[in-house]
Amino acid sequence: MERSEGNKVKIVSGCFAGIACRYDQKHWRVEEIQRLVREGKAIPVCPEQMGGLPTPRNPAEIVGGDGEDVLDGKARVIDNQGNDVTEQYIAGAREALAMAEAVGAEEAILKERSPSCGSCMIYNGTFSGTKKEGIGVTTALLRRHGIRVISEETWESEGENQT
């Protein structure tokens, strides 16, 4: 599963591969990432589903911090109906980490602004559409284990989609 130039397989957000796993049962297909999956150079994951949440599901945001704070017990992930889904987000992050470790992934390309996958920006926890700097729960856990996490925008701007 290694790329010809020696880079290991990547973990990618499942929605990029065309999988309708977003909270609204839609995808966010990125053709070049979908190609990497087809070629065995990337493994799609959906931490929310892997943590036991259904699709579709209520949108959720981190309240009281970001993914680092969730892992440290200082913040919670709450859906727009007031349900605490923190444990599912942590469980999904652990499953994504296990997948990354199983395939030897050193990099993940994840969906920006997601409470799981955001690598620079997340929503601020008020369900007002307002964004803030911060990272998602899965990003925080992967980074704690030495896995580089970037967004699709960063990946595309770095020109890495030309592999």
TrEMBL record:
Pfam families tied to this protein: 2-thiour_desulf
Family matches, as InterPro entries: 2-thiour_desulf (IPR007553)
Protein origin, superkingdom: Bacteria
UniProt-recorded name of the protein: Uncharacterized protein YbbK (DUF523 family)
Organism: Desmospora activa DSM 45169
Taxonomic path: Bacteria, Bacillati, Bacillota, Bacilli, Bacillales
